[in-house]
Amino acid sequence: MMAGSTRSQDFCHNPHAGSLLQGLQELRSDNLLTDVILCVSGREIPCHRNVLAACSGYFRAMFCNGHRESQEHNVTIHDVGTNILQLLVDYAYTSKVTITDDNAVKLLEVANFFQIQPVRDACAKHISDNLTANDCLKMAHMGSMLSCPDLEKRAWSCATREFSGVCETPEFLYLTREQLIKLVSSDDLGASEESVYTAVMAWINHDIRERKKEMKDLLRWVRFPFMDRLYFLENVESNEAVREACQDFLTEARRYHMFPGEVQSPRARPRRASGLMEMVVIIGGTETRGTGAEDHAVISNHVMTTTVAAPSETSWSVTTRMKRNNDSGFAVAVLGKSDIIVSTGTRFAKDVWLYQPELNSWSKLAKMNTNRYNHKLAVVQGKVYAIGGKDDLSALLNVEIYDRNQNKWTEGIPLPQARYHHAAAVLEGKIYVMGGFGADHEPTATMYRFTPGDSQWREMEHMPQPGGRLNAAVLFGSIYVAGLGEGLMCKWNQWEWNPWNWMRWPVPFECGITTYQGKIYITGGHSGDSRGDKQIWCYDPEFESFKSGLQELRSDNLLTDVILCVSGREIPCHRNVLAACSGYFRAMFCNGHRESQEHKVTIHDVGTNILQLLVDYAYTSKVTITDDNAVKLLEGANFFQIQPVRDACVKFISGNLSSKNCLQMVRMGSMLSCPDLEKRAWSFVTREFSAVCGTRELLYLTREQLIKLVSSDDLGASEESVYTAVMAWINHDVRKRKTEMKDLLRWVRFPFMDRLYFMENVESNEAVRKACQDFLTEARRYHMFPGEVQSPRTRPRRTSGLKETLVVIGGTEKRSTTPDDPTVFSNAVMTTMVAAPSETSWSVTTRMKRNNDSGFAVAVLGKSDIIVSTGTSFAQEVWLYHPELNSWSKLAKMNTNRYNHKLVVVQGKVYAIGGKDDLSALSDVEIYDRNQNRWTTGIPLPQPRYHHAAVVLDGRIYVMGGFDADHRRTSTMYCFTPGDSKWKEEYLPQPGGRLNAAVLMGSIYVAGLYEGFMGKWNQWESWHWMKWPARVPFECGLTTYRGKIYITGGHSGDSRGGKQIWCYDPEFKSFKSAGNLQKGLYGHTCVTILKCC
Known about the structure:
Elements: H1 16-29, E1 36-40, E2 43-47, H2 49-55, H3 57-64, E3 74-76, H4 82-94, H5 104-113, H6 117-129, H7 136-145, H8 149-161, H9 163-166, H10 177-184, H11 193-206, H12 208-211, H13 215-219, H14 229-236, H15 240-245, H16 247-258, E4 280-283, E5 286-288, E6 298-299, E7 302-306, E8 317-321, E9 331-335, E10 339-343, E11 352-356, E12 361-365, E13 376-380, E14 383-387, E15 399-403, E16 408-411, E17 423-427, E18 430-434, E19 447-450, E20 458-459, E21 471-475, E22 478-485, E23 488-492, E24 500-504, E25 512-516, E26 519-523, E27 536-539, H17 545-555, E28 562-566, E29 569-573, H18 575-581, H19 583-590, E30 600-602, H20 608-620, H21 630-640, H22 643-654, H23 662-671, H24 675-687, H25 689-692, H26 703-710, H27 719-732, H28 734-737, H29 741-745, H30 755-762, H31 766-771, H32 773-784, E31 802-809, E32 812-814, E33 824-825, E34 828-832, E35 843-847, E36 857-861, E37 865-869, E38 878-882, E39 887-890, E40 902-906, E41 909-913, E42 925-929, E43 934-937, E44 949-953, E45 956-960, E46 970-976, E47 984-992, E48 996-1000, ...
Parallel strand pairs: 1-3, 28-30
Antiparallel strand pairs: 1-2, 4-7, 5-6, 7-8, 9-10, 10-11, 11-12, 13-14, 14-15, 15-16, 17-18, 18-19, 19-20, 21-22, 22-23, 23-24, 25-26, 26-27, 28-29, 31-34, 31-56, 32-33, 34-35, 36-37, 37-38, 38-39, 40-41, 41-42, 42-43, 44-45, 45-46, 46-47, 48-49, 49-50, 50-51, 52-53, 53-54, 54-55
């Protein structure tokens, strides 16, 4: 024996495992040492427990965990065929099994049952390799049941690829809704859209009673724009059920057929099997910017394309070159599906080219009318819009429109302000222009929207911050803008409560941005240095990584720490996710309530489906709002304090109001404290009152709600309908509501009723006569003398076809101050229907019949005719202007030459009061009868007056102040009632001349008495004085317009007229600025008429 260190050697006999299996098989064949017999269908299979347990999880559990079978010699196996069990036992001893088409499925099921993983995997592979259209759906189902994800995945892939055959199988009709959507939503679906539509309709019709409600959710995945147009017309549009459920999809398809390339939705993306493929095209750009005299800019003139989702430097193809080299201010747009229009970007060229990728050729188009660069092109309804930019001198606001059929550019509606280096995008047929530099070369934050056919651009919500050199792209209803801030991209969506949202994203400056394969691609750009970048970024709005990860945890029931229990259903969730998006759950889980410690929390008074939708939203930020769930979803979102869903529901409901539901939505908006919903529902009720007043809900309005409705100027109904509705409301509970009759009928505008209806239906109603005699008298008086009666009932509603119109007549622009500086008169008659008119909102409709007239007088005769008497010391002419005809008629001359007088109208007669002739002040009065076209002498004033004010109130004429025969200001106020033999005398608080007055709701308003104040008088109160925000102008115009006092122009003691318009609101007892005249005036006349609109 040798002493020293111990030596060792590791020995491994590689064939041992095979030898061991062979030895065990021989022992089994000779029935040696077998310790268990498997009994199946009358047959016995001797085995060794340890061999079975070593390769099968099922037998390991049976024999090693103290089960009864671990002690029994005979073990019966159920529900397994003899041959299949024999094959698996043989595999346990030999590691071999023969898989055939005939046994693969059964073998897979039993290998899965006995937990023999290698055989299970081999069977799954055999089946996956031999899938056909006839069996792939069955195998997808089996893969799901047996937890074979590879088999399931490959079976679904086969079903997608072979869809044309799959949809003919019986199994197709038994797919779940979710499985069918998974198929027909795939970009890889191997079938025409006609086949997809036919298959979906077959699935629905197989159980139409239950499945019809799923029609819209399923057909949203059919890509109608890529159907054969004749098939679409004959088979889709002709289907009434499809038209009813999917009108928006059909409209989208028709629009795509007319204007391909302008429609963007999941349905407007071609499937990969369609023969069409999306392609990214990069045009021009700067490689390096020059930094000095010897370091010139390097411009790319290439047009490069790729169809790769993640292109490398070598996967781009240079297909052509731009037609103008070194162009850095050009603009580009896609016309149709693939043609690219390029307008050159220089200050001295107007060239426009069309590149056709299918032919790889260029065509020269008509030149633009204006040189421009750093502009944008946008395509809407097949027309190309060239928007803004710069010319050689300045920034541009003009827009040109190109018509391909005529090969011609025409002028479009200009932008409100000049813009260049702005972004432009088209969304839902509207052009949006964002940011850019203004005429002062400063970045702007404006967002303008234009709808073809409109007369002007509309200003939208401003961007979060100003920006220039912007680029934008549109994806599924949102506009993405790059370039606002370093490292940031901004998203705008009109349906979100806060339309603008930031996304922190590595966005470089002056990058390219486009939509590709349902994602936003950002190409190149620079980070502030002189070199362009090669990097391409992709933003996928559907799968934001954080939300996606939380959703996966929830789907796999990992780390969930609370279960919401509702109506017997359990929804596992994460407390922190619920608390992060819901104020209700935040309070529940974060404030020590009992539920913060419980694993199961029961939710009451909320439907299962609604709660599921809201939980899904918490994890995905998405929720599908439909007509069927919008109201319940709003209630649930409001209850759980999930503001974005609440706001989205409000917008959805507001956009789908009808005469049947609008009153319910008013109530709901009030109950849920949703002022926007309540406001929009009220607006709809008001606008569609003719239809709403026939609903039962109207009868259950409160008194206050009904008054709110019928008092509105915007009520969309005839006065006959309004009266009928009010009476129906009263008669619904006449005993209690009869006392409200007068308060309600005071808002019915009886003067605008059909006279025969008024006589037969209103005056004949004894209860109405008794309660509202004064309203009926007022209406009869209005019918006899329109324009002379003033009350809330004599103002037409905006939908009546009549509209109050402000009319400014004549006046002086500038008074002569030296012989060389002549007086400038206005001879124009200007009108507007705007509440706060700007200088440009006035229309000059005609001119006065006598030029340079400064002492004329004006009154309104009837609803709209304007009588004008000339104001000179040597003429007696009187003219009648008819605004509806825009024509003048000459009337009978007055008996006396007069100027600086006043005209008023009472009981259809025109009174010419006071004034001056060539020698002296006048006290005489003349009366004009239109029927006789004749002036007669009236009762004279007690004293001569000129430059006085005159108005009519309650059928009486009031003459205030003015100058007397000695040319002194006076403080008299004379009152005359037609039929009396003399004028009554009262007094003003102080003397005044060159006064103006107007009447509003029973009170007389006078301007010119006190500097800085306007006076108010009525017969029940003494004089009141309203302080003016500024100095009260002299010789201003004064009229009643839209229920307020309007004060126009005037002067402040100098020689020039003012443009300012002021408005006094008696309800709020306040003045405010209300716009401007077209030009500065004083000594003019301002009246209000009713005009057809």
